[in-house]
Design a protein that fits this description.
heterodimer, A: about 240 residues, alpha/beta, Rossmann fold, about 25% strand, B: about 300 residues, mainly alpha, two-stranded antiparallel ribbon, 4 strands, about 5% strand, binds adenosine-5'-triphosphate, binds magnesium ion
């Protein structure tokens, strides 16, 4: 469904992505792991069209999207839940959701239906629908960011470190949500540093380090690969 | 000079009514600042420019003069979006200084064109018909306070324009997009909102507001002149700073306040000194209250 080929993105003279190639399959949860500064966010921003690549191709549902504007890419059904959530701080929860449906140009009652179904998925958002999003807790903001992305009816959901900076209990909730979405058939590309939790729900895993893909395989294959295992799961294998 | 209390109250009233045009100009500055975090220095110039175009077109084609008040704002909207494309759209978005300098260039460019076309001399601007002749007096504990009909109309029209703006911002899809872009531009893009498109529309809306302000200001004075451009620019900036950059209610309140104070300064110190005190206000605010009344109402994370 998503096919990235030989992608290079740089900030000035510094190459943050060096010939990255990867694929995400329909209905699957693809996970990208990597340390700080590996280029994970750069990769997702490039796919979503916020950053422009120097070269390489990005195909989504058979269409070349690497030259398209972000707003057009969203209309194609490729939606990013960005790092640090980036909710609209002074819009109400409800307005954040409506903004999420901006790309759809659908009828009002259709959007209202989706708002309702998002409220059912995240009841806390319904409770706070008039509250300014900036005053929500971190976990609630993350749920709102996911909910806002769902309002666009994504075919493929990109998620950038949704668990970062959250309390362990909330992290579990967030991973539950991701798992549920994936089981419902939504295709997901998940970027994470929480390797243990991510590999527990992933169908396929890529490792990204200093702008390069260093490993690609199923979670089981990571288990079997001692070097990789020590480097990425090493100090957190207690669970 | 013997100034009585009633005179001060009277000038305050005249000034506050007239100040609604400053509020409109301040709103325009604030809208654009909210959207891009940039000052559009050419804003008052495009507003007055719109009023000129309205006057010119109406006289040229012998339209009824009331049409000035429709053609003017539309023309100002067009000029404003031209300013966007010339001074903002294609400059690197993180280079605030470049946009500032470019828009100062736009200010002088429009100003020069107006001066050139009119040989620098003021033109008669149609007054507000029956409103200009109307005058109300209210007795208030032994004082007689007068309300000029044209100024009441100016304030009324300004408030209608403001209500329309608030409706656009808070009740429409377009307004939601504008607010989203101003609060979190990256997330706005990720919601499928086009930043350039939204910014162009913001410039058009701000331009139309400015055109209304320009026409009303010229109509209540009865003349239009290139000399209106610079003071309006400076007062728009003062209003924006006093209200708090990006704050809508701040701009409205500060606009009325600057209008009122200016008029009192005029009464007390005469036309030569009036603006000195208005500028002094700017310094006082920049030093003691740099965020204005409602600073950072629209901010970014
Ligand atoms: N705006 C920028 N300008 C210059 N360099 C940048 C910029 N953003 C990121 N970089 C650099 O690009 C590299 C990749 O950054 P990126 O944010 O993609 O990493 P990441 O894998 O998402 O890290 P983290 O896990 O901390 O979010 C880093 O070395 C970073 O310093
Ligand atoms: Mg990152």
């Amino acid at each position: 469904m998503l096919k990235v080929d030989d992608l290079v993105t740089s900030y000035g003279l510094i190459k943050a992505l060096r010939n990255v190639s990867l694929e995400a399959e329909k209905g699957k949860l693809t996970c990208i792991l990597g340390p700080n500064g590996a280029g994970k966010s750069t990769l997702l921003f490039t796919i979503a069209g916020i950053l422009k690549s120097d070269r390489g191709s990005i195909q989504f549902l058979g269409r070349q999207i690497s030259k398209m504007k972000t707003s057009e890419i969203v209309k194609e059904g490729l939606v990013l839940v960005p790092e640090n959530r980036l909710v609209f701080p002074h819009l109400s929860v409800r307005e954040n959701l409506l903004a999420g449906a901006f790309s759809r140009f659908s009828r009002k009652d259709e959007v209202e239906e989706d708002v309702e179904s998002v409220y059912q998925r995240f009841p806390i958002l319904k409770e706070r629908y008039l509250q300014e999003a900036g005053t929500l807790s971190g976990g609630e903001q993350q749920m709102l960011a996911v909910a806002r992305a769902l309002m666009a009816r994504p075919k493929l959901l990109l998620m950038d470190e949704p668990s970062v900076g959250l309390a362990p209990k909330i992290v579990n909730t967030i991973f539950e949500i991701i798992k549920t979405l994936s089981e419902e058939g939504i295709s997901i590309v998940l970027v994470e540093q929480n390797a243990v939790k991510a590999s527990a729900i992933a169908d396929h895993i890529y490792l990204l380090d200093q702008g390069e893909i260093t490993f690609s395989g199923s979670p089981d294959e990571i288990e079997d690969n001692d070097i990789i295992k020590r480097a990425y799961l090493g100090d957190i294998t207690e669970s | 000079m013997n100034v009585e209390f009633i005179d001060i109250v009277q000038s305050l009233i005249d000034g506050v009514l007239y100040g609604s045009t400053y509020a409109l100009i301040g709103l325009g500055f604030t809208l654009i600042f909210g959207a891009m975090e940039k000052l559009n220095m050419a804003y008052a110039a495009s507003s007055i420019g719109g009023a000129y175009v309205g006057l010119g077109v109406s006289v040229l084609f012998s339209f009824p003069l009331v049409l000035i008040f429709f053609i003017g704002p539309i023309a100002a909207g067009v000029l404003s979006v031209l300013v966007y494309f010339c001074c903002f759209r294609y400059l690197p978005s993180n280079n605030h200084l470049a946009a500032l300098m470019a828009s100062i260039g736009g200010l002088f460019f429009i100003d020069e064109i107006i001066s050139h076309e009119t040989d620098g001399s003021p033109l008669d601007f149609p007054e507000l018909g029956i409103f200009s002749e109307a005058y109300f007096e209210i007795e208030f504990s032994d004082m007689f306070l007068g309300f000029r009909g044209d100024l009441i109309f100016v304030m009324f029209a300004s408030f209608v324009a403001m209500l329309f703006l608030l409706y656009l911002l808070y009740r429409t899809r377009l307004g939601l997009a504008t607010r989203a872009v101003s609060q979190q531009p990256i997330a706005a893009q990720l919601c499928g909102i086009s930043i350039h498109q939204t910014n162009s529309i913001t410039f058009i809306i701000a331009g139309v507001l400015g055109g209304i302000a320009g026409c009303l200001a010229a109509a209540s004075v009865g003349v239009i002149s290139p000399l209106l451009v610079l003071p309006l620019t400076v007062k728009g900036l003062i209003v924006t700073v006093m209200g708090g950059l990006g704050s809508i209610r701040g701009a409205i309140i500060a606009g009325l306040l600057v209008g009122g104070l200016e008029s009192v300064f005029l009464l007390l110190r005469g036309v030569n000194e009036r603006d000195i005190y208005v500028f002094l206000l700017l310094f006082i605010f920049l030093v003691f209250k740099p965020n204005g009344f409602f600073g950072a109402e629209i901010d970014r994370d």
